[in-house]
Write a structure and sequence with these properties.
The chain has 366 residues and is mainly beta. Helices cover 6% and strands 44% of the residues. Strands 1, 2, 24, 25, 26, 27, 28, 29 and 30 form a nine-stranded mixed beta sheet that branches. 36% of the residues are buried.
């Protein structure tokens, strides 16, 4: 059964946002995420300027902190951001492997260096739990030749960045290690290329729970900080990839000016014959794009898998107990980053492809 045919409630948003931020003095570009603070103010991780923007609920800038650099409160790469206990802000620099902590007003407090964690894998992201612990995802890279699959370890760290335990390891991304033609040169080499039309495991943290979306298994796994897990099936079946879909996908890559030899190498990869029910296609994902958002009430939002050119802005919604509730239709070109009560916050591109951070009111299902 297709997503649109599943019975359930339907939610939508008001036509006009109740919050919007776009300030010409601090251009939004490459926004990684935006999150609510408890009073309704918003914090924006602006990847282009490597800054955190603190905006009040009226849409006026209160403070901006950070810049490109390696000093205290600076970022080589603004990878992710989350609002933690007492509205403190945690921003992760994936290039420097450093977590910077700011008070609710944006004043720099301290940094935690997250090194020496490579035993279970390469640190990909880190977020804060309401317990004060850190939730980390670590990618274990597959090695060898041919079609292989890497994995994602989920670990809990204490507030100083020391690993307490690895909670679980999940399948992550199919890779073909070649040998492939060398772009810009001659001959071949062994290096990984993502399998076209595959999905990527997604993580989100809320309160003291870590949510893991497994696209190939059409499942959501909830983990608490002790490792106790609960699995929910997301109901949607996988979908057989048709030749027309493959042709459309590669046409979109060609339009993106991918090196012809890389394109030929990708065409030669024969991965799974089905695409996942939900999740991101790794080759066409945009900066900051997410597939999994957890609301403050524990509801899980999942984005159905889409190919380039697919229409529709509807997301699946599962209740706190994991049951399918229905779908939420969002405005065009809007990607949600946070859901609080009856508001959804996210990033929206206008007709000129300029980014805005906006919040819309969600209308109840019927």
């Amino acid at each position: 059964m297709a997503f649109d045919q599943l019975p359930g409630l339907e939610w939508s948003t008001d036509p006009e946002p109740i919050f919007s931020y776009q300030d010409s003095t601090t251009e939004l570009y490459g926004v990684r995420t935006a999150a609510f603070q408890s009073g309704g103010d918003v914090v924006i991780a602006n990847g282009g300027s490597r800054q955190l923007l603190f905006v009040n609920k009226a849409g006026s800038l209160r403070a901006h902190v950070g810049r490109a650099g390696g000093g205290p409160g600076e970022f080589q790469q603004l990878t992710s951001m989350s609002v933690g206990p007492a509205d403190s802000v945690y921003a992760y620099d994936g290039r420097a492997h450093r977590l910077s902590i700011f008070d609710p007003a944006g004043t720099y407090v301290r940094s935690v260096t997250l090194e020496g964690l490579d035993t279970p894998g390469t640190l990909e992201d880190v977020g804060i739990l309401q317990t004060g612990q850190l939730a980390a995802s670590l990618r274990r890279h597959a090695q060898g030749s041919g079609l292989l699959r890497d994995s994602l370890a989920v670990a809990v760290l204490d507030g100083t960045g020391v690993r307490e335990r690895v909670l679980a390891v999940f399948p992550h991304l199919y890779l073909d290690w070649g040998p492939h033609p060398i772009p810009g040169g001659q001959g071949t080499a062994t290096f990984p290329l993502p399998v076209p039309l595959s999905g990527v495991t997604a993580l989100a943290a809320a309160d003291s729970t870590i949510y893991v979306a497994l696209p190939d298994e059409s499942a959501i796994v909830r983990l608490d900080s002790s490792g106790l897990r609960r699995v929910t099936r997301a109901l949607l079946p996988t979908h057989t990839i048709t030749p027309a879909e493959r042709d459309r996908f590669f046409a979109s890559l060609r339009a993106g000016r991918l090196d012809p030899r890389e394109l030929d190498a990708l065409r030669a990869i024969r991965g799974p014959d089905v695409r996942p029910a939900f999740g991101t296609e790794p080759l066409t994902a945009k900066l900051g794009e997410v597939d999994l958002v957890v609301s403050d009430s524990g509801a899980v939002w999942l984005r159905p898998f889409r190919l380039p050119g697919d229409s529709g802005g509807a997301w699946m919604r599962l209740g706190p107990e994991g049951y399918y509730q229905g779908k939420v239709t969002l405005p065009s070109t809007f990607r949600p980053t946070a859901v609080q009560r009856d508001l959804v916050l996210g990033v929206q591109r206008d007709s000129l492809d300029v980014e805005h951070v906006r919040a819309y009111r969600i209308r109840p299902g019927h």
